[in-house]
Amino acid sequence: MEYFDQAEMHILCLLDGKPGHEKQTFGIIRALGEKFPIKVTEIKVTHHSLWHSFWKMICLNMPFYRFQGQEITDPDLLICTGSGTHLQTLLYKKKYTIPAVTCMAPDFIFRSRFDLCFVPVHDGFKQRENIVTTVGPPNCSINRNNHKEKNGLILLGGIDQRSHRWNSLKIAEKIDKIIERECETEWMISSSPRTPEDMILRLEKMSSHNPRVSFYNYKNTPHGWLEEQYDKSAVVWVTADSVSMVYEALTAGCKVGVIPVDWNKKVNKFKKSVAFLADNGFILSYDTWVEQKGDWSEHEILNEAQRCADIIMRRLWKKNS
Q: Do 167 and 242 fall within a single domain?
């Protein structure tokens, strides 16, 4: 295992342009920055042809090959998220002989080459020397303890034919039920890039007829808007297909309920993830809430970005003596 021991940690983060992946990377980097001075160099990974990737894989295994990537001065650590970043990350690791960390499980041919892989428990991997399971992906949320008891937030996913069947009418009926029962709560509802137009029209109509409801189309919300809503919302309901937002809301310290969707398969990682959270008291399912068989329970503080940062510090950082 390689170690770094400078007073300042110089982090190379490789980014694929996908917001969900980059939130995982930056969540860990922010947590590291709370412990030590850090310097961050961002490297944008571009998509290459299959032939180019195959050639780079051959180069990765050539003992005397020197990667001709961007020249970096005294880097200490590589962090990446997403399969499209793995090959280039490992080429930089070979070039600078520094530790490499990734979120999500790399393909088998790359897995042993990473010093640490942070993998959500719902992916079904067992803990090993370089694999650490997490309760969902790390993220950029922070619990600032500014939640207002009468503020609620409802977040919608939408269409993804690979994983589930979206039914706007059924989802709208469940939202109506939540708003009707929680009659003292001011509700904010937001769409996402996957939310279909008929659902948006229903929500616009809903907000126009109820003074306690405000609808925000994600297209019209500024950067950081969602994080602001987490900060001030005591309760957050999220459709089950938007698992990343479930974990963001939990990390922000909100009470989180999950609105079900119709999954295509009886077993999939998103369904497993929601079931794990419900079984361990992190969330309340809509059906349990409707039947009044439970309430949001106290649970351990969820901050996987901080836990990942602590593990990196413990395993890969050797303090100056």
A: yes
Beta strands in 121-192 (DSSP E): 131-134, 148-155, 164-165, 186-190
pTM (2 d.p.): 0.88
- Confidence check: pLDDT of 61 > 70: no
Residue 207, domain extent: 148-290
For Cα atoms 141, 146, 150, give the angle at the middle one, nearest 5 degrees: 110
Strand segments (E) across the chain: 9-15, 38-44, 77-81, 100-103, 116-120, 131-134, 148-155, 164-165, 186-190, 213-216, 233-239, 255-259, 262-263, 284-285
Are residues 277 and 243 in contact, defined by beta-carbon separation less than 8 angstroms? no
Q: Using the predicted structure, report yes or no on whether residue 53 has a pLDDT greater than 70.
A: no
Task: Specify the number of domains making up the chain.
Answer: 2
- Predicted confidence at residue 3, as pLDDT, reads 47
Other C-beta atoms closer than 10 Å to the C-beta of 128 total 12
Mean pLDDT of the chain: 89
Do 275 and 310 share a domain, yes or no?
Answer: no
CB 278 within 8 A of CB 258: yes
CATH number for the domain including 124?
3.40.50.2000
Q: Do residues 304 and 321 touch, judged by C-beta distance below 8 A?
A: no
